[in-house]
Design a protein that fits this description.
Blueprint (H helix, E strand, L loop, with lengths): L29 E3 L2 E9 L3 E6 L2 E6 L10 H8 L11 E4 L5 E6 L3 E2 H6 L6 H20 L12 E3 L6 E3 L32 H4 L8 H15 L18 H13 L29 H4 L5 H10 L8 H10 L7
Antiparallel strand pairs: 1-2, 2-3, 3-4, 4-6, 5-6, 7-8, 8-9
Helix pairs in contact: 3-5, 3-9, 5-8
Length: 328
C-alpha cells in the first residue's frame, strides 16, 4: 500500500490538515535545511511532513527497499508536470543527509471536505474535478500512472479550490520506472483502500492509466452520494485479514460479478475473477446514486466499469459537449 494506506486514516504526506502550526507561545519548531521553525504535520511509510510558513516539506526518512516509493523518481516526475499537479519548488539534502522535497503549503484536501460529513455543493464538485481530470489528462499524455488516486491526494488552496493533484511518490513513468518495473511487470501493491482498481486485485501487472480513472470515478461517486459523502466501496484497514477479499466482494455487490463477456481482458490475469465467486447482479446506478443527475451518473458509470474505461482525454471532450453538466 501507499503511504496513507489505511482507509481509516486520511493523513499522510499528501494530506496536510489545516493550520498545524502551534499557537503563539508554543514550542519552537525544528530546522530542516535552510528552513527554520518547521512544525511536524504527519508521517507516512517513507516520509515525514513538516510545515514552515507557506511551505510543506516532505522529508524522506526511509530509503531501504521502498519500491514502488522512490523519492528521486518522484522529484524527476514532478519536474515534468505543470499545474494543476502540485508544483515541486525545490529539493535538497538536510543536515542529516535526508532528501527533502519542498512544495507550496495547501491548507486542505478533498478528504478534509468529505470528513465534514456534509454534502458538497455540486458547483464545487464540478470545479474540483475539472482540475483533477485536467491533471490526469496531462500526466497520462506522458504515459505516467499516478497509482494512488484518493481524496487525500487532492490538495486545495481554499475550501472552494483550486485543486492540485499530489502524492506522486509511487507514480510509474514509462522511462524512469522501466528498470525497476518493466511495463508488463509492474508492482501490484498500489492504491489505497476503496479506490484500488480491480485489475490489480486480480494480478494484472500490465495495468495502465485506467487504474487512475477507476480511482477517480470511485472518488467522484463518493462526492456525489447523498445525503452525505460515503465511499462507493467498503474496504477494511490493510492490516486486517481478508481486507482485499472484502473490497472485491464490495465491488461485485455494487457493479456485479464480472463475466468473460463483461471483462474479457481478465481472462489473461494471473487470477481470473471467473467461476470462483458468488454471482452478484449489478445494481443500477440510479439505486447506487439516487438524486444525482443522469449525465453525472453516466460519467461515473463510464469510469467505474471493468472494461473500456473512459480516458481523461475523453472526459475533457465529453465536458465540451455538455458544458452545463450539473449534479442537481
Amino acid at each position: 500500500m501507499t503511504e496513507s494506506s489505511s482507509p481509516q486514516s486520511r493523513e499522510g504526506p499528501g494530506c496536510l490538515p489545516p493550520d498545524p502550526t502551534p499557537e503563539s507561545g508554543g514550542p519552537p519548531g525544528t530546522r530542516i535545511g535552510p528552513y527554520k521553525d518547521c512544525h511536524y504535520v504527519a508521517s507516512g511509510l517513507t516520509a515525514e511532513v513538516y510545515r514552515c510558513s507557506d511551505r510543506a516539506l516532505k522529508v524522506i526518512v526511509e530509503t531501504r527497499d521502498i519500491e514502488p516509493h522512490n523519492p528521486g523518481r518522484e522529484a524527476k516526475i514532478l519536474g515534468l508536470l505543470q499545474k494543476p499537479c502540485i508544483p515541486l519548488l525545490e529539493t535538497f539534502w538536510d543536515h542529516q543527509q535526508r532528501f527533502v522535497l519542498a512544495f507550496p503549503y495547501m491548507p486542505l484536501t478533498l478528504a478534509n471536505l468529505l470528513d465534514r460529513g456534509s454534502p458538497l455543493p455540486y458547483s464545487l464538485v464540478r470545479t474540483l474535478f475539472t482540475d483533477i481530470f485536467t491533471a490526469l489528462k496531462q500526466i497520462h499524455a506522458q504515459g505516467i500512472i499516478h497509482r494512488d488516486i484518493k481524496p487525500s491526494a487532492v490538495l486545495l488552496a481554499t475550501p472552494t479550490g483550486p485543486a492540485y493533484l499530489s502524492d506522486f511518490g509511487t507514480a510509474w513513468h514509462p522511462t524512469l520506472s522501466a528498470t525497476a518495473e518493466p511495463e508488463s511487470e509492474k508492482v501490484l501493491d498500489i492504491g489505497t483502500g476503496p479506490y484500488r482498481a480491480p485489475e490489480v486485485l486480480f494480478g494484472n501487472r500490465s495495468y495502465d492509466t485506467a487504474v487512475d480513472m477507476w480511482g477517480t470515478g470511485a472518488m467522484l461517486a463518493e462526492c456525489c452520494r447523498l445525503p452525505s459523502p460515503k465511499p462507493l466501496f467498503e474496504s477494511r484497514p490493510v492490516h486486517e485479514d481478508g481486507n482485499q477479499l472484502g473490497l472485491i466482494l464490495s465491488i461485485f455487490k455494487t457493479i456485479g460479478t464480472p463475466t468473460r463477456e463483461t471483462w474479457p481482458e481478465a481472462a489473461s490475469f494471473k487470477t481470473p475473477p471467473f467461476d470462483m465467486y458468488r454471482v452478484f447482479e449489478r445494481q443500477t446506478w440510479e439505486a447506487v446514486l439516487p438524486r444525482v443527475g443522469e449525465e453525472w451518473r453516466d460519467l461515473i458509470s463510464s469510469l467505474v466499469v471493468y472494461s473500456s474505461r473512459i480516458t481523461a482525454e475523453e472526459v475533457s471532450i465529453l465536458c465540451c459537449f455538455m458544458p452545463h453538466l450539473d449534479l442537481s
